[in-house]
Amino acid sequence: MSGDWRQRLASGPVAASAPCRIDLGGTLDLAAVGLPLDNLAPCTVNIALDLRTRVSVSLGRPGRIQVAANGFDPAVFATGQAPYDHPLGLIFAVADAFGVDGVQIRIASSSPPRSALGGSSVAAVALVAALTHAAAPQAARRVNRRQVALLAQRIEGAAAGVACGLQDQLAAAFGGINAWYWSHRRGPGGFRRRRLAAPGGIEALNRCFLVAYGGNPHVSQDINGRWVQAFRRGGDQRELWRRIAALTHDFIDAWARGDLEAAGEVLNSDTRLRCQMTPEVLDEAGQRLVEAAVEAGCGARFAGAGGGGCIWALGTAPAIARLRETWQTVLASIPGGLLLDARVDRRGVAVSRSPRVSAETPSR
To answer: How many domains does the chain have?
Structure first.
């Protein structure tokens, strides 16, 4: 297999990139929560951001896999021997799934590490796309987005030893603005995509949302795990999740009408419900950012499962313009706080064959 990969990469590195996301309705993509709520048509909304993660695969030392990623210490392990609980374990798991040997993998992300924007899943999607492209015959090198997302999710779940959602991988693979409807009874591929048009167009929408990093990295599995366990125990938690499922539909309806004020109110309602379940979903920085957004007449929600990371806000362009100034003031007093330069990403995952290829090739 080592020789195969040396041949596959002989003409130069393979590179791929994919976008991260902001979201609403997360955790409903987990069967443990979404399946018992199937009659409510559980769905998740995500907006892909042009804060892309770029992955390149090139020849390295035979018998070794080397990984370098910004925000992490470089790592090298003998082929097939890397621990998957390592900070870069998911990347090694993807390499092992493809039988890769003797390569260097470099990862550069435009978003802060562990910012709750789906970064590790995005890197996995980009790497799966790059390796799929490299391993395919010349005539079959257009990568299928759906297959890439599903494979990346399966590898992540296997490496983590827990069930993983799918929304991060789908946002990275497809890009754009989408609602994903989960039919967990049909199995891992049981989902339906609904493209959501940007009210007023993409450029107008880019002036109607903000994304801020609160300076503290998040740990999504902890909060997600607590939500799942509380749901399994039954009681009042089940009713809260029914309300969260309904709110996601309310958001889609408001979005379709172009009513960003109403959509923002839904964000605030979702945030309040999840804070009721787990107050730690907002750290101190997140609380300050959310409070400022509400006072400015905007909606705000943590990204992913919260507990640190990013907060995103939605509102009319004038309200967001006012909030931008307020958030900049708040973030200036938070160590590591940062207002991200984020816009909607329309492309999704893209692959290029070598440095001689100047333009990325969009996948299907």
So the answer is: 2
What average pLDDT score do residues 253-263 get? 97
The domain in which residue 227 lies consists of: 202-340
Q: What are phi and psi of 234, to 5 degrees?
A: 80, -155
pLDDT digits (tens, 9 = 90+) for 35-88: 999 999 999 999 999 999 999 999 999 999 999 998 899 999 999 999 999 999
Tokens of 1: 């297999």
Q: Are 88 and 75 in contact (CB under 8 A)?
A: yes
Instruction: Find, among 180, 176, 210, the residue nearest to 315 by Cα.
Output: 210
Tracing tokens 């979005």 back to the chain, one arrives at 255
Query: Which of 39-75 are b and which e, b meaning 16 or more Cβ less than 10 Å from the residue's Cβ?
Result: ebbbbbbbbbbbbbbbbbbbebeeeebbbbbeeeeeb
pLDDT in tens, 98-128: 999 999 999 999 998 888 898 899 999 999 9
The answer to whether 188 and 130 are in contact (CB under 8 A) is no
DSSP string, 34-92: HGGGGGG--EEEEEEEEEEEEEEEEE--TTEEEEEETTS--EEEETT---TTSTTHHHH
Does pTM top 0.90 for this prediction? yes
> CATH number for the domain including 79?
3.30.230.10
Q: Residue 114 gets which letter from DSSP?
A: T
